Please model this.
Amino acid sequence: MQLAVNVLVLAAIYALISCGYVLIYRVSRVLSLAHGELMMLGAYGLYMTASLFSGEPVIAVLVSVALAFTIGLAVYAALMRHMTGEAVLTAVLATIALGIFVRGFVVLVWTAQEQHPARLLGIENTSFPVPGDARISLVGILLLAVTAAVYLGLYVFLRYTAWGIRMRATGQNPLLAAQRGIRLHGVYALAWGLATLTGGLAGMLISIDTALEQTLVLIGLKAFPAALVGGLDSLAGALLGSLIIATAEVLLIYYVNPLLADAVPFLVLTAMLMVRPWGLLGTREELDRV
Amino acid sequence: MSRHRSAALGDRLRTSYQAELALLDRRSRRVAFAALAAALAAFPFLASAFQLDLANQVLLASIGAVAFMLLTGYAGQVSLGHAGLLAAGAFTTGILYKELDAPIWATLPASALVGAALGLVFGLPSLRLRGLYLAVSTLALHFIVIYAGMEYEARRSYSTGVVIDPPAIGGWTLASPLAWYFVLLGFAAAAVLVALNLLRSRTGRAWRAIRGREAVAEALGIHVPAAKLLAFLVSSVMTAVAGCLFAYYRGFVSSEAFTLYVTIQYAAMIIIGGMGSILGAVLGTIFVTLFPYFIEYLVATLPVPQSWVDSIYAVNYAAFGLVMILFLVLEPQGLVGLWRRAKQYFLLWPFKQRPLRASQ
Model:
């Protein structure tokens, strides 16, 4: 039972992170490899607001969430806007360069020391018993709730709101969308903003759960296979992929070898790429045409 | 008038395939090459020990960068497994040396063989995948090789890494930086020559056609799967050999030396240097290898906060990321683009644009 709880919490983490990969890829066909770093930046944003508004956790969280959204918009306006129409590799490398920059920047501003935003916010990470002789931490519950809320929100947003429909149209065919009067740059910027927001949320929750340090990037990188296994352009796929990766990881660590932890997601990914490269629920890319 | 023209064409009018294939086809090129060779030969006798080490690092990295350029810059197959391949070469060398006490004439071909096998296996997904998905599947290569290396280190309890003695051929040991310089120069020159020769021939044209558009390449009669696998094979062998040399040069193999950051550095080399150019690969290697030392020098001389001096690696990261972003946004053609524009500026002076029709 404890294993099941662990799987669920880990899956929630991966799902919350990987929906950022999916959002950006689905809308602009760019893979953001800076997602882990932006997630870390979001978490450091919480640390900053937590020290500014200490004792007011709600305000601190709200401000840092708004900050994460703004960072996403800024990244698009300053960097990714120039990458529209460039080759896939160039755009991906631009995000990698951004990631390297953010890593250095974070250390220069906040030093490499471990930080504990939870203490600044005054949050006690107590654990609760769950039926079946298992325990779940407060942050674990929060993670599950936030992930559910984010996915529900994205579903409603993409399905029923005007901006969401514009976003889907842009993802399907940018040229036609532009001709129908949709502002592509606005839609792309919104996708980056939302992706950084959700990633930032994940970063904040993880940093409250354990601590805030550079290894957060690694978790972001491990969530990437989850997005790929599910299918890079499907939100439901991201959810499914996260569940699969988390299950494999928890079970293999428990029964086989803890050293495997960092390799598991990529092993699952390799197996997946051999069989169904476009992912479980992803759409198959069109064939090359002359 | 006609005499004038024939004199101008002189050595440019090619009348045989031999002349077409010649690398040093003009007197100016022969002179430039002789000057470069003389400078490279004289360099180690004039340079300090530190500069010599830097030169060796650049030469070593340029082998890998040229290999990466062949695969990604010419054949258009994006790979993120480059550090994994370097590690495969280095670990093959380290393991053979430790377990069998193998000399360099055994470890070098063995590394090349391992590289070839890995290149073939991890080139296979390229037959079905394209662009992004291919890059990710090569990422799997990286993690698998590094994991295998870590397993070996853990099993044999070389927790800090495998120590390797300098290679000996006959009675002579390759240990001094000066000797290393010439050995590495030979390997780097060979890598560049192999690359240039491949690119001027059928293989290179096939790779470029595939990069342009696969369906068209196939319609032109190119066996696309074979050409792709060959690109992976050649690139992996060169990279694994570079890994083997790296192991001997450093005298030390550790899985921690081959992080994803190494792959990113190599990608930066070919992007900053300029995609689709061997000269670009070399220029990019020089730039990326020397960059951290340059930043270190700047931090030491300029008045910067003490915290920056303490976490110099972070300054490096931030500066490196920034420079890469600037190159991608402002000069997508890289250093080669700058070089070409500078050349054009001087050639055309006092004009700015090339005239539409050559003047009679």
